[in-house]
Design brief:
439 residues, alpha/beta, Aspartate Aminotransferase, domain 1, Aspartate Aminotransferase, domain 2, 7-stranded mixed β-sheet, 4-stranded mixed β-sheet, 16 helices, binds 4'-deoxy-4'-aminopyridoxal-5'-phosphate
Length: 439
Amino acid sequence: MLTEIAAGDAVALCRSSQLFARGQKVFPAGVTRATIDREPHPIYVARGEGAYLVDVDEARLLDLNNNFTTLLHGHGFKPVVEAVCELLAAGTCFSNPTRYEIALAELLTSRIPAIERIRFVNTGTEAVMFAIKAARAFTGRSAIARFAGAYHGAYDWAEAGQNGFDIRLDGSRNARLGYRGAPSEIANDVLVLDFNDADGLDDTIAAHASRIAAILIDPMPSRAGLLEPQPVFIERIMDVANRHGILIIADEVLNLRQSYAGASARYRLKPDFVVAGKIIGGGFPIGAIGGNAEVMSVFGGDPSSPVVSQGGTFSANPVSMVAGLKAMEAATPAVFDRLERQGDWLRAELSAVARKHGAAFSVTGAASLLRIHPRATPPTTYAEAAPTPPDIAAMRSLSRHFREKGILLPHDAAACLSTPMGDDELEHVVATFEQFLVD
Ligand code: PMP
């Protein structure tokens, strides 16, 4: 399956398809991440330049993916590049702590109300895993409650329910496990609830309360549709958790980019743990588990035998710490305000264009995040947002059109803005969308 591009009179294979042919000989499915778009082949990147990336065929694309929302400042952000270059010669990892981890921790604890203490790891997956372990250790309970369709990384207990649930003979829900052969016991300890269903939440939690350690919630789950959380739902989560001694884990790996203080603060959720990742690493691998001093104490205790042992060869490596520090220092309240205004404008314009042309498209999202849906009204539940095969085809075709016009638009995940984007870029996005609807 090699794409051919015309090169003058001759026909040449594009470099990306050539690379894909090589990749297929060494990687299952030809790539190293399931999330790589392969329609008809991945776009191999040569370099990033601010809001843009340049692929190996010298095509320049406005990057609305930003490595799955990681790069708040786009590619090659100078303060990060300079600090990391300086650090490379001084050493990239040690078995000892460095001052950079304290600086990044101080920044995050001063901004995010729910974080008094923090631990760094290397990925969001790892951070969610440790938050779940910590909640279990703190409560002495093993089950977790989570919302259908939300993505929380690849830890078995976080993955179960990501693709929804099946109904058991007794009418209860059985979390769909991540892969064939996963221990079926996992489903007994993962309760799958519906996002924005306050009453359903109450009933299910009450029936299992004594064995639930935590409610795991992404305040605006992106894979589930980038759904706006209803205030009554958020209040009910806190009320139910409080009533039953259940902890709340806010997975803000993606949504921390919603504001200077993160997403929980924005939606008035008061979690016990906040899980972070992506933007706080400035483009380098990172994850973090934060929370109030009491719950975070499970990572301490007797130093030779903490209640929950959390290590990691590369945890808090100085490169990620310094890059994260530089990226986050530059993410001032004014920067978040500007991104938010741009996001509001873009979402409103895209929605207006769809209305103008009577097209069944709607837009969800907040701050610098957005997701286009092939339906006339924005989804409020996962059931409404879950794409049907025709929806998937429609979004793929939209994404293909965007790519032809020089824009990288994720077709099944959140798109996002970065600080180097200006009016020209945003207007280009709206014009490209309109062109798609007209053609
Ligand atoms: N939680 C959420 C909400 C995420 O969006 C992601 C990554 N997309 C993860 C967890 C896992 O993070 P990572 O890919 O760094 O393991």
